[in-house]
Write a structure and sequence with these properties.
Layout (H helix, E strand, L loop, with lengths): L3 E6 L9 E5 L2 E8 L2 E6 L13 E3 L2 E3 L6 E3 L15 E2 L1 E4 L2 E5 L1
Antiparallel strand pairs: 1-10, 2-3, 3-4, 4-8, 5-6, 6-7, 9-10
């Protein structure tokens, strides 16, 4: 059964990069695009870099190790489509970012 987990304060999510978060034993990356928040798997499938530390440009995040590009809304890998990540619904409740896992 899926449920929302609070992962950060809205103010913690920078506009120019992601925010790495951990829920249980899983890593996620949270992103802010405009006023919207998005969540994807937090580890790059290439070399295991934390995508939450990657720099963003609109709806794209660039892996901090080798620059692989991912869409923060869908998890799609723009360089290698077979290496796409899962995306998770995100919402804001009372100033807190929550993701549906």
């Amino acid at each position: 059964m899926n449920e929302y987990f609070t992962v950060a304060d809205v103010s913690q999510v920078p506009a120019d990069r992601g925010l790495p978060v951990r829920v249980g034993n899983r890593d996620f990356a949270i992103f802010k695009v405009g006023e919207d928040f998005f969540a994807i798997d937090g580890i790059c499938p290439h070399k295991g870099a934390p995508l939450g530390q990657g720099f963003t440009d609109k709806e794209r995040v660039y892996c901090p190790l080798h620059g692989w590009e991912f869409n923060v809304q869908t998890g799609a890998c723009l360089d290698y489509p077979d290496k796409s990540l899962c995306a998770y619904p995100a919402r804001v409740e009372n100033g807190k970012v929550q993701i549906l896992i």
